[in-house]
Structures
1.
Amino acid sequence: MLEKDVWFSLLKISESTKAALLNKLGGTEEVWKYSRDSGWLLSGDRSELKVKAKISVSPGEKEIEAVSSALLKNGIRLVCCNDPLFPAKLKQQAECPAVLFYKGSPSELGFGKTAAIVGSRNCTSYGRSAAAAIARDLCRSGIGVVSGLARGIDGAAHRSALANGGYTCGVLGCGLDIVYPRENQSLYSEMFAKGCVLTEFLPGTRPAPYNFPKRNRLISGLSDVVIVVEAGEKSGALITAALALEQNKSVFSVPGSIFSNMSSGANRLIRDGAQIYTDLDDLRTCLSLDSAAPVDCAGAFASELHSRIFDVLSEKPMHIDEIINITHIDIKQLFELLFELQLDNRILCLTGNYYIRAAND
């Protein structure tokens, strides 16, 4: 069956035509038989004759074998749009891909609520902290997190979802055998085990710029709402927001500083009509939430170092340099510890690398 699925994925016809063939014939095996039987026509009109002429010119055996080998070597699976495992939300969208490649478990995309968290790759500490906090609250409310597995906002959202035991799905603009960016290798591995990573691109497809708008339409399509955390005027997150509106999805934007270029696009979305995201209560209506989930921040600290950092902080902002001077913790390790304290809602990061205790502590 894998050989026929790969053959089908390589056909040079539109995604809508592929979907129509699957719906009419039942599966890739039947489409393959149809392509081989010159006397078998579904309607006999000119458009069908053109389609049949195209699919009768099959991909070569070497090409099919190369893709099949790449799938098996990398543990990548393939699902067609007529399969129950295929995400139902995507089937409702125009230009739905007929075939998806995935690793992990996509089954949770078929039911329950999901929210996309998107934003700038070159985000600020404010944006990273906001993305992590939003993902945490979503997951504690049973809402899955969808994003693009890029650096910056995407990575912060995925990591926070995993850290809080939630479900998260990453959508790629390249083949699943390519880790992009390379720095996300460990994140990829963890998501394969605890979430899902998927793409419509064949193995070996490089992350070319023109792939990402296609990727973005899947991010919005897989989600019930889209939340833009931090985005400049030319951020790809704005493309995702525009696609979400075309798909009749709700768009939220996290307000940012008027002095930050990283927030100019996100603020403009609010000016143009996007809903403001300040906390989970803002999603209550569009996601039909009974109530905002309480965030439990009580309990012991994860380590003595976490406790030491927390003890030096107060309601008065303290700069990272001052924290280093007091705690004598290496700066790289300190940033990791501060980030973990933010995920636990113990502290907040302010613009300029200043930190304070969270109000509920």
2.
Amino acid sequence: MMNRFFLVVMLLFGILSCATTDLPPVNELSSLQLQEDERRLWNRSAEEQKRLDHSNYLYGDLVLTAYVNDVAHSLISEDIKVKGLTIEIKIIKNPLLNAFAYPNGVIYVHTGILCKMQNEAQLATLLGHEMTHALYRHAVENYRSMKNTSAVLATVQMASIPFGVYGDLANLLGSLGAMAAVTGYSRELETEADKVGLDLMVKAGYDPEESTRLFEYLKKDIEEQDIKEPFFFGTHPRLQERINNYNQFIMDSYHDKKGNKYESRFMANISPLLLENALMDISMGRFSSAHDGIERFLKIEPENARAHYCMAELYRQKGDKDDREKAISEYNLAISFDPSDPRPHRGLGMIYYKQRFYEKSKQEFERYLFLYPNAEDRGYIEQYIQQIQTKLQEAKQ
């Protein structure tokens, strides 16, 4: 993987290193005429996106995807499409904090960062930032500004950082995606993306103060939970740069400007994702982050059986003091709100087995198989039941 990645980046370096970096933004052109090196970047983008789109990382909820794209399109004029750049937002199933833009206008947003937002104005802030990278042609400027091989190698090294459980995603990103998602662009280009993105969201009627609040909230979340992430928006220094920039821009231009937040509309669209993202967090052992997401959902739907099941799974897998009792309580709440769901019975069976409450464990496992006769793990659960029967017989002797 590393050799292929290195060759791609060096090829791009050879294509772009001799060109000027003076490029007007798309919105200032009558039509977008791609230069030869820029067209190569667009072609490379299409190849990388094809791998992403055909992977199991793409989040397929059409309602949420349409909503996020509607917000994006509200930030720019319709004539951008006519000029040759189509902005399209796609969502990646990944609990880590990030979003990144390809030069051809396709932007990928992680479920993790969506679930940390509080309102639509914060979403518009993030999208405005990423859209500016495409509108102002930052990808080709970034490559053209690389003056020597060592700069390219440094970028390769950073873009090749292991991604832990989500290592496959790093491989799928390719050179352009990895650089945008991990290292970001130069400080000057990122500052420009902050400034122009803020202007876009304010002109669309959003509250500028929410731009700073988004990154302050992300920074606080990372600090409190001691999260270590390789992605651009998951690192403390990058978030502090965003906070400093937005504070300065608001002070300079929008200190008395008010706008809309659209919290209710945002939560109505994002709430189903909170549980799915929480389960991904649980699978990575990010229990505090998962807990926050489930609690946010339960404030909206306090009697949702699936949410209580997710909370029970969190407590069962975390396994700290008193967590088993909390898990049992949450499983029972899930059953009370949806008696037809077999999953809480499986969880209860596991807990009771570890507590050596074998009769209770056997009852819960049998209830699980009764409600879910075609369970994929039926053989596994039947082995548990057989072990329990053996233990109960030995206890009687």
3.
Amino acid sequence: MKTIVAISTPAGNGGIGIVRMSGDSSLEILKKIFKPVKSGDFEPNVMRLGEIIDSEGNVVDQVLVSYFKAPKSYTGEDICEVNCHGGYIASKKVLELLLENGATPAAGGEFTKRAFLNGKMDLTQAEAVADLINSKTEKEGKASAAQLEGKLGRNIREIKDGIVDLLADIEADIDYPEYEDIEDVKNERIISTLDEQIEKLDKLEKSFESGKILKNGILTAIIGKPNVGKSSLMNVLLKEDRAIVTEIAGTTRDTIEEYVNLKGISLRLVDTAGIRDTEDIVENIGVEKSKKALNDAELVLFLVDGSKELSDEDKKLYEEIKTKNHIVIKNKIDLDEKELSLNDGNIVKISAKTGEGITELEDKIEELFNLKNLESENELIITNIRHKDLINKAKNGLIKANNTVKDGLPVDMISINIQEAIKDLCEILGESISDDVLNRIFEKFCVGK
């Protein structure tokens, strides 16, 4: 394989910039442009101080370089890393010199892809690398770290091994019934074993509901008629003036989206235009976008003006949101408060102007989504839709096999279902996966990882 190179640190000003190279020719290429302070052979896992020199003998930068000898490296190949000064110029120039001397530009995720292909990690761990890099909250990071450590891979492997052992016994009993030392596989044992593995897969699949919240956050639409304080609420949750706030009804003409960290979980807040009938063409576009946000939302924060009686518009909106996960927010309680004629168990009183009641609102969201129990270090949580779909396929294959046995049909009829389930679990681990799927997974990675 070609020796690849990429800048592994983000562009922009910073203390250091890291240029990473992997492949059989890494050390040979590095030596062409690196002049160490002290002469001598490169020792693996030791950093050396020196200078990067261009083709004309000019010093580009003073750097620290490290050398990791195969197979004891991230990719399982020889790796060299150049730690130069941060900023745009130094790392870019080092990259150019390495390319001029024989290295090839790395594709997105190619270092981690090589680590997977060289057996340094299974595919669940490789995918966890990207998830950890992209984590927006601490809890999401912990879930990704657990998978990077191999927790999911071990769990899937354990289930797969149990199914493989069962299939081996079934096929041995079918092929060699005359051998007395091969235990007869009884229907009760098959059903019991399948039930056990189905239960494990079902638990993993159900954990995706929590995992989806950890990874994607909760899509939260702030809904209400004009001038009830939707933009003010967004600003107070974000702790910054993100949305324009005026006394003029209909100020917000478009949806505004921002992320806020709520007790370790990401809320994807969508501040919407006030929903009302209007002849204003621009405002009407905003209203249509608000209705779409309402339809897509996993949580609706429905604001009403607590200083006024509920209007017909309020009541009409409430009928649209009451069947969704929602919280009715009675805003403007710092003014003369009116009674709220709604029989709803999810009502919170706030003042977006003074901040009163915001803690209670956050507590209500935590309660509604049971966020306190999303402690990823205590149990395995699936966060990847690819894993969830394959787990579902494997589980359904085993259920089909189990029902076949329970219906009294011949045992040899379930082998295909079990083999398909094993294949699905192998695909999660990357033990059986097409190049197209593999490329789609790694093309989502950043270059340099």
